[in-house]
Amino acid sequence: MNALLLLFDAVLALTLIGLAVRTLTTADQFEAVVAFMVFGLLMAVAWTRLHAPDIALAEAAIGAGLTGSLFLNALR
Fold first, then answer.
1. pTM of the model
2. What percentage of residues in the chain have a pLDDT greater than 70?
């Protein structure tokens, strides 16, 4: 079970790095905003794995939810 959790953490970390690069390098603004929102949600999962549920909740609400919706509104 411990090896499975280690694998999950490694995949999560690599996915976060890939999303960060994708967010910064894409030319399409809508795609960048969506990648940013997914990044925020996965960061909430990472904070939960680190036993910090308060930070995870704030990341999901502010990072993915509020900021993402403001960015989407700015694209209109």
1. 0.90
2. 100
d(CA 41, CA 35): 10
Q: CA nearest 14: which of 31, 32, 39, 50?
A: 39
Cβ(35)–Cβ(26) below 8 Å:
yes
Long-range contact set of residues 24-31: C-beta below 8 Å, sequence gap at least 24: 29/75, 30/72, 30/75
Query: Can you tell me whether residue 74 is helix, strand or coil?
Result: helix
Residue 76 has pLDDT above 90, yes or no: no
Contact 22, 3 (CB under 8 A): no
Cα–Cα distance measured from residue 22 to residue 62, given in angstroms and rounded to the nearest whole number: 20
